[in-house]
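[Automated response] Your request has been received and processed.

Submitted sequence:
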Amino acid sequence: MIDIQEFMPASIDYYYIGSSPIVRWAVDSPFKGLGEAVMLLYAMMKCGFDKEVDLFFKLSARYVITNSFCLDSWSSDKISFLFRNGSVSTRCYAVSKKCIRIFIFALLCSIPMLMMGRSIENVLPRFIGKKHIASLKFLGINGFVGPDGDFINE
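Generated structure:
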């Protein structure tokens, strides 16, 4: 493991958003992607997306950053994803401050398709657009995959 303090600020704001009716509705729906999109939108509204940071990282809770994590690999002016089998990995990705409004717009536009059961891994990049996406070769995370429990190192 790497020293997470190297990347984290001295103090971190924590917001519990699970009691929000809209978040609860989306997360409890049969559509995983809908829950993720609504949770991200609500969290960004709650904590503010105009903070003075270069990158906003989303890391799924079951994964951890490893020694292979390299901050320099992540784009400072795009949305960085790892692509797997033609889809983006939503295990970990980063949104540059420059693209935060594009990301929010893409999440909002994705909601109708997510409510029909489409995968966020396929829908979200379509609304972001190729010119705003940087493709990563490796994430620098590991953990157990939710559906089958396999251990991955990406």
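Summary generated for your ticket: The CA atoms of residues 111 and 150 lie 29 Å apart. Helices lie at 21-27, 32-47, 100-114, 120-128.
If you did not submit this request, please reply to this message.
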